[in-house]
Amino acid sequence: MNQFQSARFNGLDGLFRRQSQFRFWSARFAQDRCWLCQSNSRALCSCVSFGCMCNPFRYFNSSPEVIRLVVMMYVRYPPSLRNVEDLLAERGIDVSHETVRFWWNRFGPMFAAEIRKRRVAHMRGFIQWRWHLDEAFVKINGKLCYLWRAIDHEGEVLEAVVTSKRDKAAALKLLKRIMKKYGSPRRVLTDGLRAYSAAMNEIGAADRHKVGGRLNNRAENSHQPFRRRERAMQQFRSMKMLQKFSSIHAQVHSLFNQERHLVTRQVYKQRRSAALAEWRALAT
Fold this sequence. Notes:
Elements: H1 3-31, H2 64-76, H3 81-90, H4 97-123, E1 130-140, E2 143-152, E3 157-163, H5 168-182, E4 187-190, H6 194-202, E5 209-211, H7 217-221, H8 223-232, H9 239-256, H10 265-280
Parallel strand pairs: 1-4, 4-5
Antiparallel strand pairs: 1-2, 2-3
Helix pairs in contact: 2-4, 3-4, 4-9, 5-6
């Protein structure tokens, strides 16, 4: 065997070795169980678009309980990154504020996607009574952007969409997105913005649209938790970050929003325990 044939043989041998390794790990990967859609095969997983892994905590030294606690403290409450670091230090958990930033960016969309999937599957079995649509002005680097939000009759945030314009196309984008997920409601309440009327006429649901000033107070009040979080974060730097955080914050807030002023203390404690149990079961 000359030098050329020896080099060719070694190259083919390395190629066959890499192919066998690829087939081995592909088989192992296909046998894993997806944590989000509970599919027995990753090859048949229906939630690849969420970027999920079979065990999202496998590359982290910290426990999943600590990561869930950090994400909940930063998204649900209005402290800063360094405030979360100090609060964890009082509990004996040494975590840097940059680690808090990385964790909520990494696991926040993952947790929100699982919460949204469970809520959509539950809510599609019931009749949607009434939706409240409203938009909020958000300034990013001196430029006004618009955060469109849809609220149901119980105050839960259905969807949040960020756009650069306040027109018919933006309102139509919000309506199509929530109707695709939750179906059609009996009534849609908005303010006097003409973009809502044009969008409702476009989808053929003008008879379900109702315009009123004080009728849409539920949507106006739902902006308050987001505004408190915005002040703590000292505004946003880009529309992409605004869309990401508003979507995560909406799902987490809806999970823990128990309307404590409408129920007794005992009922509120039961609902709070159920919400915490559901949160601790995420990504398991």
